[in-house]
Amino acid sequence: MNTVHLSTFLSSIKSISGQYSLPIAPEYTMDSYHKWKFYPFYSDEGFQLDCENVTDFVMMACNTFVKHPNDTFVEIGSSDNDVLLNSMRQLIQHMTDRGHEVAAFRTLLYYFHMKSRISASASDIKEVYSAVFEKFYFLTYTMVQKVLSQRRVDLNFAYGLLSALPENSQFGPLKCLIKWCSSNLNRLAAVARIGIEVAKYFQKSDALSMYENIYKKASLLSRSNVRSVPMEIILHSSSHESSWPVVKDLILTQEMDLPTVYECCSAFQLPTNNVLTTYLNHILLESEKKFLNNDSTDMEVMHILEQAAAVINCIKDEELLCNNLKSLMKKVIL
After folding, report:
1. Distances in Å between the alpha carbon of 153 and those of 143, 302, 307?
2. Share of the chain above pLDDT 90, in %
3. Is residue 174 in a domain?
4. DSSP three-state, residue 154
5. What are the pLDDT digits (tens) for 222-245?
6. Residue 74, C-beta contacts closer than 8 angstroms, at least 6 positions apart
7. Whose CA, among 33, 49, 108, 259, lies 20 to 30 Å from 79?
C-alpha cells in the first residue's frame, strides 16, 4: 500500500488526541495518545457506524480536497494531488477490507481538522466545503453519541471530535447531545463537561455558566444514585422553591458529609446557612433515635455530636441557629 503522507496523518494526531492532557476532569481522562497513536490499524472498538456512509464521506472529502489544493494541503504541489488521492483510496480500501472503516474516518477527520484550521478561517471553510461539512456535522454528532455510549468514556476523544467543527457549529451538537442523554445523568455530566471546555475555549461566559451548572447537578445526583429529579431542574436555573425539595430529600435519604452539603448549595444555588441548618437537624434527630433505641455505642454518639458541632461552627447566621436550636428544644421537651 502506498503510504504517502501517512506519517503526517499519524504525527498530526499527537497534538490533539490526548498526549497533552486536556483540562478534563480526572475521572474521565484517559491516555488517548497511546491508545490511538496507530489507530488506523486497530480494530473497531465498538464505535459502529454505517460502512457505506463513512466510506462515501471519506471519498467525497478526498475529492473536495483535490479540487481546492490551495485551500487545504498548502505544502502539496499540484503534481502530488493524484498521488495523494490514490494513496487515500488505497488506505480506505485497506481498512475497509479489514473492517476498520471507522478508523479510516477518524484518520481523515483529524487530518482534515488540522489542515483546515491552518489553511483558512472557519467561515471560509464552511463556504468552500459546505457539502463536506454537512456530512461532517452529522457523522461527528453520531460518533460522539457512540463514544458517550461506551462503558468507559474517552472524554478527550469526544471533545476532539467536536472541536473539529467551526465555532458556530460546535454548540448545536452540544444542545442536541444534552437532550439525547437527559435521562442518563452520567452521560449528561460528560456532555456538560465537554460543554465547559468548549465554552472556555471560545470565552462564552453565559454558556460556561450554564454547562457548569448542569455538570454540578448531574454529577452530584449521579453519585447519589438519584433518578427521579425533573430534568428542568437540572438543565435550567431553577427557583429556590423547586430546588429545595430535591436538596432536602438528598440530605434526609443519603449518607452525606459536610463537603457534599456545600456541593449541594453550590449546585442548586441555595442559601448555605439554611441548608446547613437542615443538615444539622437531620444529624441531631438521627442521633436521638439511635440513642433512644440503643442502636449506637457511646463512642458513636460522641462522634455524631462532634459532627454536629462542626456543622454548627459553619453556620454564620447566629439568629437562625439560635431559633433552630430553640425549636429543637421544644420538640425534645414535648
Report:
1. 12, 43, 37
2. 10
3. yes
4. coil
5. 888 887 788 888 888 767 778 888
6. 115, 118, 119
7. 108
Q: How many domains does the chain have?
A: 3
Check residue 108 and give its pLDDT: 60
Residue whose cell numbers read 483540562: 23
pTM of the model: 0.65
Are the beta carbons of 105 and 96 closer than 8 angstroms? no
- Average pLDDT score, the chain: 69
**Contact at 8 Å (CB) between 48 and 102?**
yes
Residue located via cell numbers 460502512: 51
Of 235, 252, 162, 241, the residue nearest 199 (C-alpha)? 162
What are the distances in angstroms from CA 283 to CA 24, 165, 205, 308? 35, 50, 38, 7
Asked whether 195 and 207 are in contact (CB, 8 A), the reply is yes
Last residue of a domain, one of 108, 124, 146: 146
- Give the integer Cα–Cα distance in Å for 283 and 291: 12
What is the per-residue pLDDT for 44?
Answer: 42
- The cell 498521488 sits on which residue? 83
Residue 171, in any domain of the structure: yes
- The conformation of residue 164, written as its DSSP 8-state character, comes to T
- Specify whether the CB–CB gap between 30 and 18 falls below 8 A: yes
Domain shared by 57 and 135, yes or no: yes
Residue 16 lies in a domain: no
**Tens digits of residue pLDDT in 171-209:** 888 988 998 988 888 899 999 999 999 999 889 999 999
Q: pLDDT at position 286, please?
A: 81
Structural domain for 130, as ranges? 48-66+78-146
Residues 101 and 187 in one domain: no
Q: Of 119, 146, 173, which residue is a domain's last? A: 146
Cα–Cα distance measured from residue 136 to residue 141, given in angstroms and rounded to the nearest whole number: 9
72 within a domain of the structure (yes/no) = no
